[in-house]
Design goal:
Layout: H1 2-14, H2 18-33, H3 39-55, H4 65-71, H5 76-89, H6 93-105, H7 109-125, H8 131-142, H9 146-162, H10 166-182, H11 186-199, H12 209-226, H13 229-243, H14 249-265, H15 269-286, H16 289-304, H17 308-313
Helix pairs in contact: 1-2, 2-3, 3-4, 4-6, 5-6, 6-7, 6-8, 7-8, 8-9, 9-10, 10-11, 10-12, 11-12, 12-13, 12-14, 13-14, 14-15, 15-16
């Protein structure tokens, strides 16, 4: 797909075909960079598509630009500035959804929730669409409300399945499983992860790391819960390696957090603390203050635990 698009782009540039270039850049963003987990490249392509659409005298697309900005490595406050400028130019329900998510990242959870809930309601009014549930779930995750997040992700997954959107379904089944692990519902989470794994059969994880890491993380947590620590560590480290190909700092943070939980389950507190320190670094770089609060709380709790050797001595 990329090879075809680059060839088409070169030919369209020679004729200043802005309408065609807008389509090519959109496909390079959503269709190539997105599936590779390269959200920053996706945002760049989406901005190019927007520019060429305007040069062609057409309305500029915004549906995917905000999501690319949220999910990429650009700090949350900078991404919010871009989205707010775009909203001044072009009203967009999708950009409002993304704005609410970024507000929640920046510690303005109540405001973010209100903005996103209103935008989600507008999206539902426009037709049978449940994508707003995803972003509301993300805000709930940032607040540590795993019950609400799991309920909303289940609605989203049921809707995706009803629409036979199986390419998306695997990713969100994995995310649903992750929230269930946080609720201690490991058996149910594992079944969802195995379903997600089945949906990914035949796909190359090096091309689509964004969907392959999540079910590994869920299975790692389930294995650690059963005491299968070697298998848990293998899966967790594979998840970390896959997220390293993804430029989403939040995704990298969560994979490192899961590795820390696996290491902590094996009594390897110092290694777990190191993984959490790395996770916290990702939060700081993204300026995801809400996620950083959760990671720091877990790190402090781990440091406060009495080492096993000391407990034995006492």
């Amino acid at each position: 797909l990329e090879a075809l698009l680059v060839d088409a782009r070169q030919r369209l540039e020679k004729t200043d075909d802005h309408a065609g270039l807008a389509q090519v850049w959109w496909a390079l963003g959503f269709g190539v960079a997105n599936l590779r987990g390269r959200s920053d490249d996706w945002a760049t392509a989406a901005l190019q598509a927007r520019n060429h659409s305007r040069l062609a005298g057409r309305s500029a697309p915004t549906a995917d630009l905000g999501t690319a900005l949220v999910c990429g490595a650009r700090p949350a406050d900078e991404a919010l500035d871009v989205i707010e400028r775009l909203l001044e130019e072009t009203p967009s329900t999708w950009l409002r959804l993304n704005r609410g998510w970024l507000l929640a990242m920046l510690g303005r959870g109540d405001e973010g929730w209100q903005v996103t809930e209103e935008a989600s309601a507008r999206l539902r009014d426009q037709g049978d669409n449940r994508w707003g549930e995803w972003m509301l779930a993300e805000i709930s995750l940032l607040a540590g409300d795993y019950d609400d997040a799991s309920n909303r992700l289940r609605v989203l997954c049921d809707w995706l399945e009803s629409k036979e959107q199986f390419g998306f379904l695997g990713s969100y089944l994995g995310e649903l499983g992750w929230t269930l692990c946080r609720l201690g519902r490991f058996d149910e989470a594992e079944r969802l992860a195995e379903r997600a794994q089945g949906l990914e059969q035949g796909r190359d994880p090096t091309i689509d790391p964004d969907s392959w890491h999540t079910w590994r993380q869920v299975l790692a947590l389930a294995c650690a819960h059963r005491g299968e620590l070697a298998e848990a560590e293998r899966l967790a480290r594979e998840g970390v390696a896959l997220t390293a190909q993804n430029d989403s700092l939040d995704v990298q943070c969560l994979a490192l957090w899961d590795l820390a939980e696996v290491l902590a389950a094996g009594g390897r507190a110092e290694e777990a603390e190191d993984a959490l320190d790395q996770a916290l670094d990702r939060c700081r770089r993204k300026k995801n203050l809400a996620l950083a609060t959760q990671v720091r709380r877990r790190l402090d709790a781990l440091k406060a635990q009495v080492p096993a050797e000391s407990a034995t001595d006492v």
